[in-house]
Specification:
alpha/beta, Lyase, Ornithine Decarboxylase, Chain A, domain 1, 2 domains, seven-stranded parallel β-sheet, 12 helices, 19 strands, 28% helix, elongated, binds pyridoxal-5'-phosphate, pyridoxal phosphate, Ala_racemase_N, isomerase, EC 5.1.1.1, alanine racemase activity
């Protein structure tokens, strides 16, 4: 335990071994298709500089981000010699063509204007340039819609000079296994591919992988499942948890009824209670919607968050815990083996993705196994 761990208000432990084990599990599931890793939003909050080298060492050869600057961060994490592919989903911002080529980042071309811009740049350079082309099969968000797909399929010379490495599309309802939408999108994607020149095809996100072989194509693009979010919400989570968040107890006080706790006097103490004040708040990405709804864990026992979550603090009713279990200076578990990300998300009225990508910069980060947690109680 370092001095920093000792004084840190909250400690975020990230288990890179679990991330790698999750990726390996998905890789084996999609084989012989390739398994990429979606590492946008700083690897869903876990830290791209740590996650990318760990996955690359395990054999991951394609990384996916949302924005060009995220792609640069992935390249930096991989090192200059790495042959890994880096895909940027957010298209080709005007005037960035040279930067994509210089940094070996593959733009995902999302409309015919970007296809034309990439072709123009390829002609200027006198070489074929690699890219991914996104076909919209039902998201109506990014990608070539039906009209643009028709034009492209009828005028394939629009691809001259472009080395289309991957045709991709994205599922709208992958985690709703009862929805007919996924099968509809599969049909649309297969029809589109039949009209286009041969290249790799990429369809499945994390949940999509669990729809079966027909969804795997050549390249799967899991994100959330790598980080422990359940890709099969109707079933037990097949993935390992990858993060643990512990926060410091700052004060413990006995409160006699009738009294209130915190901002807006939002919690009324109806009987004598022990309230622990914990050093985490919404400025850390600990979602304010957990006010009066969330729980923390101490030695395997749940204690409810009472009152409002404030910028730096939460208050927890620890009356139900054996006296002495919670001590100022000790730690309580907010996310971890006892409170998986999906459980915290459900309490907050959101999804695991938001809980992870909200993990704040103030946390003292430790890259270690999470099963035991920081030993500082
Ligand atoms: C285009 C695309 N592919 C793959 C993913 C990864 O999805 P998931 O985190 O659900 O696995 C995302 C994430 O939003 C995405 O936008």
């Amino acid at each position: 335990m370092t001095d920093l761990s000792r004084r840190a208000a909250a400690i975020l432990t990230v288990d890179l071994g679990a991330v790698v084990a999750n990726w390996t599990r998905l890789r084996d599931r999609v084989a012989p298709a390739e398994c990429a890793a979606v590492v946008k939003a700083d690897a869903y909050g876990l830290g791209v500089a740590h996650v990318v080298p760990a996955l690359a060492a395990a054999g991951c050869a394609t990384f996916v981000v949302a924005q060009f600057d995220e792609a640069l961060a992935v390249r930096a994490a991989l090192g200059p010699e790495s042959p890994a592919r880096v895909l940027s989903l957010g298209g080709l911002p005007q005037g960035t063509e040279a930067a994509f080529v210089a940094n070996r980042i593959l733009p995902v071309l999302n409309h015919l204007g970007e296809v034309a811009a990439w072709q123009r740049f390829a002609r200027e350079r006198g070489e074929r340039l690699p890219a991914v082309v996104h076909i919209d099969t039902g998201m109506n968000r990014l990608g070539l819609g039906p009209d643009e797909l028709d034009i492209l399929a009828n005028e394939l010379d629009r691809l001259d000079g472009i080395d289309v490495q991957v045709w991709m599309t994205h599922l709208a309802c992958a985690d709703e296994f009862e929805s007919p939408m996924s099968a509809q999108q599969l049909g649309r994607f297969q029809t589109a591919l039949a009209r286009l020149p041969a290249a790799e095809a990429s369809f499945a996100n994390s949940s999509g992988i669990f729809h079966g072989k027909a969804f795997h194509f050549d390249l799967a693009r899991p994100g959330c499942a790598l980080y422990g979010v359940n890709p099969t919400p109707h079933l037990a989570n097949p993935m390992l948890g990858t993060v643990r968040l512990d926060a410091r107890v700052l004060q413990l006080r006995s409160v006699d009824a009738p009294m209130t706790v915190g901002y807006a006097a939002a919690h009324r103490v109806e009987r004598a209670a022990r309230i622990a004040t914990i050093a985490v708040g919404y400025a850390d990405g600990y979602l304010r919607s957990l006010s009066g709804r969330g729980h923390v864990y101490v030695d395997g026992i749940a204690a409810p968050i009472v009152g409002r979550i404030s910028m730096d603090l939460i208050t927890v009713d620890v009356t139900g815990l054996p006296e002495g279990t919670v001590q100022p200076g000790g730690l309580v578990e907010l996310i971890g083996p006892s409170r998986p990300v999906d459980v915290v998300a459900a309490e907050a009225g959101t999804i695991g993705y938001e809980v992870l990508t909200s993990l704040g910069p103030r946390y003292h980060r430790v890259y270690d196994r999470v099963s035991s947690g920081p030993d500082a109680r």
